[in-house]
Amino acid sequence: MSTAEPVDDGAHEHPKHRVVRHVRYRMSRSEKFIAVALIVGVVVLALIPFVFIIVPAGHVGVLYRLLRHGTETQFVYREGLGIKWPFDRIYTYEVRTKTLNESVHALATDGLSVQVQISVLYRPVPDSAGRLHQEVGYEYVDRIVRPISLGAVRDIIGKSDPHDLYRINVEDLEGRILDKMRRSPAAYGLIVFERVVVRDLDLPPTLNDSINRKLTEEQNALAYQYLIEQAKDEAERKRIEAIGIQTFYAIVANALTPQLLTWRGIEATVELSRSNNSKIVVVGGGKDQLPLILGSDIARQPDLPAPAVVDPRSNPLPPFRDLPRLFPKPGSADAASGAASGVVSSTGSTGSDKTSTQAATPGVKKP
């Protein structure tokens, strides 16, 4: 069964009466979704640098709000990824420890020029980075750190004498400078000064030469003082030795009889004859005379009884620890006792010879 198709009668119409028809293209839903997604993606890609921020390691981010109160001082962005409005701005600050090397020209108390080279270790306070950005800015090293460092060094050097600086403890000088820097109100709560290192301290050459000469003379004076003390100790030693010799002779004086001397001479002659060395022996003129030692009266010596044994308790040695010193130190007990008894002392007080001898050799009896 055939279907009749409509016949276009336009071919039979007059050209002036022909109507032109335009057909519109309409997008499907999937095509509209794709187009919208593309537009949003382009916008997001364009806004990523203005919305998402990355804070590097060792840094903090300070937020500046364009449409509100400006710099945010209550919080900071930590390391990592952060989000903000596109019209706001982030300023990053490094909070790691930094080093500032400076050469400072300062004047000491007497006006002499001193050149000091220092290294300052510092870092910003992370939680106060907003205040630091608002009150000081990125130039905080030139505006705060360097002026405070120079002022602290000049203040400490200006209160010191060059001679003291020559012998000062470096750690003590560094501690004083660091304490002065930390007490500065300009950096309080914003900058942390961790350490100050004094790398070099240059004094004028003339001052160095004079100080070196002075120190050399002081060492020479100490050496002479040591020699004097050594001589005093040697005098004390000889004094004690003399007391011992005097005590020895006081004990053996009564035992040195002619018979004892004769016996000692015989012993010496026997020992001399036993010697292997070549020798010449000179003897006396009589048969009872001995060589070398004894004279011609040896045979006519009287017979004396043997000496009695000396009792050590009758001739005791003096207490050496209790002896007054020959050179007592001023203010000591020996100096006071020596002055009271008239013994010669280092302070110049003198007494009689008899008193000095008795005080120097207590407990010793004269033979």
Automatic annotation (TrEMBL):
Indicate where this protein is primarily found. membrane
The protein in question is named: SPFH domain / Band 7 family protein
Lineage at the top is:
Bacteria, Pseudomonadati, Pseudomonadota, Betaproteobacteria, Burkholderiales
Q: Where is the Band domain?
A: 50-215
- Superkingdom of the source species: Bacteria
Q: Name one Pfam family in it.
A: Band_7
Membrane-spanning regions, if any? 33-55
Asked if the Swiss-Prot or TrEMBL record annotates the protein with the keyword Nucleus, the reply is no
Q: Where is the composition biased (Low complexity)?
A: 325-357
Q: Which GO terms describe its cellular component?
A: membrane
Topology in the membrane? Single-pass membrane protein
User: Which stretches of sequence are listed as region Disordered?
Assistant: 304-367
Per the record's keyword annotation, is Transmembrane helix included, yes or no?
Answer: yes
Any one GO biological process = mitochondrion organization
Where does the record say this protein resides? Membrane
Keywords assigned by UniProt?
Membrane, Transmembrane, Transmembrane helix
- Cross-referenced InterPro entries, in alphabetical order? Band_7, Band_7/SPFH_dom_sf, Prohibitin
Source organism: Caballeronia cordobensis (Burkholderia cordobensis)
